[in-house]
Amino acid sequence: MPDRWEPARRPVVRPVGLPVQQLQVVNEYRIEEAKRLLAQSNLPVTTIIFEAGFQTKSNFNREFLRVTGMSPSDYRRSNSLPSVEGEPISVGSPSPGMP
User: Fold this and answer.
1) pLDDT in tens, 50-78
2) Of all helices (H) and strands (E), which one includes residue 25?
3) d(CA 32, CA 35)
4) Distance from CA of residue 89 to its chain's centroid?
5) Against a cut of 0.90, is the pTM above it?
6) Domain coordinates of the chain in residue numbers?
7) Fewest CB atoms less than 10 Å from the CB: which of 10, 40, 56, 84?
8) 3 contacts 43 by C-beta, under 8 angstroms
9) Is 81 within 8 Å of 22 (Cβ atoms)?
């Protein structure tokens, strides 16, 4: 019998996530939604991050740069469409071709 009580040691169990390739495909769909919202709305980037399905700003910025080659702010400046009166862009409406 040991001199002192010790809790049973258990292995650390980490949740199993998607393989990297599948995660990149998912993130590319999320970036497409973010691009649509950046170009067609005046929503703040922080709102767009969460609406597109990202959990953190740093991951969003890294993935956005990887996919587009530019920052979200630069993308918005170079791709903003003039607003069409009477046709607001609603958050959460999928862009064509997105599941």
Assistant:
1) 999 999 999 999 999 999 999 999 999 99
2) helix 20-40
3) 5
4) 19
5) no
6) 20-77
7) 10
8) no
9) no
